[in-house]
Amino acid sequence: MTGATLKDEEEIIRRGKEAYKRKRQGWADWMVIAEAVEVGQQRAMRAANTNRPFGRAYTKVFGEWMKENPEFGDGYEGIGRVARCNLLKCLDHRLAIEEWRESIPVHDRLAWNHPITVWRHFSAAQEAKAPKKAATPRAPIDARSARAEGAASVSAPAPEPARDPDPQPSRVNADAAATILSENERLAEENRKLAAEAKSLREELRKARADVQKQVDQRVDAYIEEKLGKEAREAMKLAKSTHAWSYARKLPFSEAEFRTLLKATHPDTAHDDKARREAFLMLNDRRDSLVRPAERGDGLPADFPRTAEELAARRKAGSAEQERKANVSRAKAALKRQATVA
After folding, report:
1. How far is CA 9 from the centre of its chain?
2. Taking every pair of C-alpha atoms in the chain, what is the biggest distance, in angstroms?
3. What's the pLDDT tens digit per position in 180-189?
4. Which helix (H) or strand (E) holds 293?
5. The model scores a pTM over 0.85
6. Which of 1, 6, 32, 104 qualifies as a cystine partner to 19, CB 3.0-4.6 A?
7. Going by C-beta distance under 8 Å and a sequence separation of 6 or more, which residues neighbour residue 273?
8. Cβ(239)–Cβ(279) under 8 Å?
9. Domains of the chain: total
């Protein structure tokens, strides 16, 4: 890091922030973060005019730098003081740690990435490699010197014996691996539960959308049924009645005529004047074939038009009917837009 320019330092800090924002940091990401923390440490040392990362002036400047870069600080979004200290230790012993990582099993190498974990296991491995000091035999002492030594031991506490390193590092590795496996199983179970909940929510959303669409269709049909007029309702009722359709199957309707009848009676296209006029003519011409002989007769309301001329005259006489049809079209379009938005 010596001799780095201000532009280089900013680039190192930027890459450190990007590495910290990743969901799962590997060992390489933590080393990038360590380099960014080292840049902040050197800046604070230069500003405090010191060559050691200690002292009131250094602490104040480094704290301000961490406020500007919260990813490396002690707050909720930062790595924390303990992880930062262990991270700088790992950076100081980077070559030794990377050489040690090459010697450990692959599953441990993949699991041990956090600086606290890496430094703990690396320190334990180094202590296990260090040779143990042989105990020196004590010379025999007489009773007087024994009493003096006992009095001295009462007046001054005896030093604590040195703690021996873990004699079974493989057992520690096995326990850590078992812990990691159990944690992975727990996370996998949580992921399965979340996936099941997401599937259930999607199914509920699909049903809710289907119910809303069904309600909108019912409201549109009711509005059209109410606003189209009495003669349209009678024509639709006549066309959809059981006896009319049973006799209509025997009639020589062409494909074009049959499609015209469907268009005139369908709720979405029943406002088409041309189709309704043609359907009226076809049904009126085939009245004798559509109605049972014993039940033939007018059977229609008194004001129901029987010819095309009567129908045209009725359309021309009522301008309000045309306005009503326009209102139906606008209301239908508005309801469909509301259904799409919902």
Report:
1. 35
2. 144
3. 887 888 888 8
4. none
5. no
6. 32
7. 315
8. yes
9. 2
